Amino acid sequence: MKPETLAIHSGNLYESSTKDVTPPINLSTTFFRDEDGGYSGGHMYSRVSNPNRSALEQVLTNLEKGADACAFSSGNTAGMSLFQALAPGSHIIAADDMYWGFKKQLQSIFADTLTIDFIDLTDIDRISGYIKENTVMIWVETPSNPLLKITDLVAISAITKKHNLILACDSTFASPCLQNPISLGADIVMHSSTKYIGGHSDVLGGALITAKKSAFWEKVRNIQQIGGAVPSPFDCFLLLRSIKTLPYRMRGHCENGMALAQYLEQHPKVEAVFYPGLPAHAQHEIARQQMTGFGGMLSILVKGGADEARRVVNTVKLFAQATSLGGVESLIEHRASVEGPDTKTPQNLIRISVGLEHIDDLIADFNQALA
Ligand SMILES: *Cc1c(COP(=O)(O)O)cnc(C)c1O
């Protein structure tokens, strides 16, 4: 079935005596045991599994064309659980512009157990040179933050397959509707469900989806169940509700993202636009091959430096000055001041999460702010 249909139907695992069309929120933390000691209802204790979470994991598995999924209480705990599943002493290769929260985890929480090389993963030919005897994983994030760099998943998966490494992909900016990394050779897909999957800036969540069940995946599942960084039944209910409209929301984000990028690209006060849908984007061809749409995230460099960038984010009216992304409402931020003093992000960079307002209103707002 197609994503629109899967999004609406594949999470409805629930059968009830009251014939609910929409699965209820199941708040029970514990479940009846059968006389023979079994759990014929399929659940024992809600840290281990819960009906709402199982439904969420089922939909995510289907949308990402994987074999199984683990839902977590945040994107950060999803990523952390994967790092925890790696043997101490392992080496990881990750992008130099990896999501800063994961970079921080690796450099602090995992500083004594894992070693990492942060490199430019768009330079495919140089990657093999960083693989060592203890390298176990390449972590890709595409599109990346905040420069919207695109990493060629098919090309990297040829390298990870040859060297028997895990290819993990943070696909948050694409959502499960615009790119399916497993179909392009990835072993594990990661999402911050807080972003497009949730889509309404009102629920925190994360997920890992695996291409195949394996001993390594069992370790990840074990960390989820024993570690306990699980989403609540209500979080799962909200995410399931959101996912039903995800394919249509993504169409709107792509349409608005492209139109705003094209408008900004020709504006005399804008120095550069980073949006993978523009032919001028450095990896536009790769984006066209591995994505079915280019999403609602873009960054721009404005003429006039940090002061002008701050003035613009303070002058727009419809774009809320706030971090995060993927919600129905448009957000804007001066990224360098979010990332702090040691950031490599250009001081005149503005990151925009284009929402689902009417594009004419969004363009009119930028028009007055840049004037
Ligand atoms: C937000 C985000 C995360 C972290 O997710 P949380 O839900 O905030 O914990 C990871 N990767 C990317 C690309 C993100 O945008």
Describe the 3D structure:
Its cofactor is pyridoxal 5'-phosphate. Keywords: Pyridoxal phosphate. One of its GO terms (molecular function) is pyridoxal phosphate binding. Belongs to the trans-sulfuration enzymes family. With 371 residues, the chain is of the alpha/beta class. It has 2 domains: 241 residues, 3-Layer(aba) Sandwich (Aspartate Aminotransferase, domain 2); 124 residues, Aspartate Aminotransferase, domain 1 (Alpha-Beta Complex), CATH 3.90.1150. It is 36% helix and 16% strand. The protein is built from 14 helices and 12 strands. The strands form 2 sheets. A 7-stranded mixed sheet has the order 1-7-6-5-4-2-3, with helices on both faces. Strands 8-9-12-11-10 form a 5-stranded mixed sheet. Helix 4 links the parallel strand 2 and strand 3. The termini are far apart. The model has no long low-confidence stretch (mean pLDDT 96). Pyridoxal-5'-phosphate (PLP) binds next to helix 3.
List keywords for this structure.
14 helices, about 375 residues, Cys_met_metab_PP, seven-stranded mixed β-sheet, pyridoxal phosphate binding, Cystathionine gamma-synthase, Aspartate Aminotransferase, domain 1, alpha/beta, Aspartate Aminotransferase, domain 2, five-stranded mixed β-sheet, 12 strands, binds pyridoxal-5'-phosphate
The average pLDDT is 96
> In terms of per-residue confidence, which ranges show pLDDT below 50 for 5 or more consecutive residues?
none
The coarse overall form would be globular
CATH architecture of the largest domain: 3-Layer(aba) Sandwich
CATH superfamily of the largest domain: Type I PLP-dependent aspartate aminotransferase-like (Major domain)
Bound molecules: pyridoxal-5'-phosphate
Pfam family, one: Cys_Met_Meta_PP
GO molecular function: cystathionine gamma-lyase activity; pyridoxal phosphate binding
Cofactor: pyridoxal 5'-phosphate
Modified residues (N6-(pyridoxal phosphate)lysine): 195
